[in-house]
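[AMINO ACID CHAIN]
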Amino acid sequence: MSERGSGATAAVKAATSRATGWWPAYGSAGHRASWTRGRALAAPAVLTAVLLAFHRLVPNTPGHLGSLLESFLPWSGLVITVLFGLALLRRSAVALVALLLPVAAWTHLFGGLLLPATKPGGHDLVVVQHNVSDENTDPAGTARSLADAGPALIGLEELLPAALPVYERTLAPRYPYHAVLGSVGLWSKHPLSDVQKLDIKPAGITEPWSRGLRAVAHTRRREIAVYVAHLPSVRVHATGLASSWRDESARLLGKAVAAERLRTVILLGDLNSTVDDRGLTPLTSRMNVPARGFALSFPAVLPVARIDQVMARTATVGHIRALRATGSDHLPVIARVTLG
């Protein structure tokens, strides 16, 4: 290369270096600095990647810390975003390279949920799950909103005796079949039979408590066991997550699913947990969870987690999304279940 050409190339490199600060001459002090600055940002990036990849290894004692981490695991994406911004400000090559680890781990765990919904199929069953809240002041409006979404099945929790006739009257024109046991109910466009109570009551609860039912929906394709359940609430304290009753109830529900004689099962419920939480392993190990969509459902004002779930056995839960707010502190979720 001529001296003139070499000089032009050097000038371009120098101009790029001054303009961006990212591409200093190889071996220069600036080049070395870009690989040494920002090490303090690389450490939390690697830690985030480790927590994402090995969250099951985080102990659940004391305070169910493992479950607490898993309940908010998708939000680690915000941590990655903040670290990325700081790495750009610091012009740190080492931090940016380190961030590839949590980005890869997050994408592996949750990237599929961001993909668009697949096209509806001929054997799809649209279902809605909603905790209507025992403080809902507009049960009629809530029922109309759910029916307008056009699902074949609607699972409801926190049904009060005073509000139940309103739901029955409002949903009856489009949902001629329904079953209610305790505070949970199922409305269906398909005939229902063999309605049974699900015994998912934790041993430590002594007062009357009926929050699970099982019914058989007779669809044109096959008979489906439909479960509606409301697991006990959890509380977040300074010492961690109080979820023992929820976990016990999930184990009982998992046993019921395992013993179910029908091949296909659809579960609709407020499970007070995300599908990543190990507390729901008795269910997620036996059933398929949604493949597309985050559908954050709680709290309705500013939802941070999907604790309202749709799961299925020998069927695929495709896209799930949240519907508009009702009079509840939960958002309804709607999902498309493809029968195998």
The first strand starts at residue 124 and ends at 131. The chain has ten helices and 13 strands. Confidence is low (pLDDT under 50) at residues 12-20.
